[in-house]
Amino acid sequence: xxxxxxxxxxxxxxxxxxxxxxxxxxxxxxxxxxxxxxxxxxxxxxxxxxxxxxxxxxxxxxxxxxxxxxxxxxxxxxxxxxxxxxxxxxxxxxxxxxxxxxxxxxxxxxxxxxxxxxxxxxxxxxxxxxxxxxxxxxxxxxxxxxxxxxxxxxxxxxxxxxxxxxxxxxxxxxxxxxxxxxxxxxxxxxxxxxxxxxxxxxxxxxxxxxxxxxxxxxxxxxxxxxxxxxxxxxxxxxxxxxxxxxxxxxxxxxxxxxxxxxxxxxxxxxxxxxxxxxxxxxxxxxxxxxxxxxxxxxxxxxxx
Length: 304
Hints:
By secondary structure, the protein is mainly beta. The chain has helices spanning about 5-10, 30-35; strands at about 45-50, 55-60, 65-70, 75-80, 90, 100-105, 115, 125-130, 135-140, 145-150, 160-165, 170-175, 185-190, 195-200, 210, 220, 230, 235-240, 250, 260, 265-270, 275-280, 285-290, 295-300. The longest helix has 9 residues, at about 5-10.
């Protein structure tokens, strides 16, 4: 099993999230596409890296230098997300106690301005849509089913709990939105096994599998053109919108633990050693830099 498999197995070990009922407002394709594309890269762009050992590291991708280390509230951060306002969400993974937390940080802050705990039980991945609904994955303690908790904008308790399909050895590892506003959940499996990506259409309560071919599983990201990147073990596969077969695949030295894409189409890959950065369409990284962290997630933003 690779590093990412171990991370997800730890994050989703033996307990689940709980919630209520209701349906979040559906995001329009235009709104979500704008959120995915973000803004043009500039000097203020920041790369957030979760260090499962107890911090969120903030780097400048341009200079590849450490700008900030966040420890307050980040006891064991896994999945990360930055919304369109620059708010950072960092879900904490369990460590001997299933109840964890989801702290939220304003741009440049070192302490959270609020923390969600209701329903944050053994959760591992987080995503935020264009309407600022928050989505968090979790695992049920008795049935072994995986769940998606949905928190409406500004709410501290979930309004809805949905079941995430999974294969026998699968673990939900990361989330992204496609160009239509659908939520995608990437599932990671053990070394040598294929992964899976599940799709939840806006307003729906049921996931469908994308049935991708040669899916390496686990880490996922979507660029501004709607291309889907799927990474697992030591491979990244790239799928054009609605395609079942990858348009290209490439090997990543030191394995794949997390993915994110910036507004220019550059791909950032978290590995066992740090970060590798790929130009659009590239098979080899244009640059890499070392990070002293057990990487659980990546997120990008651009600040004025």
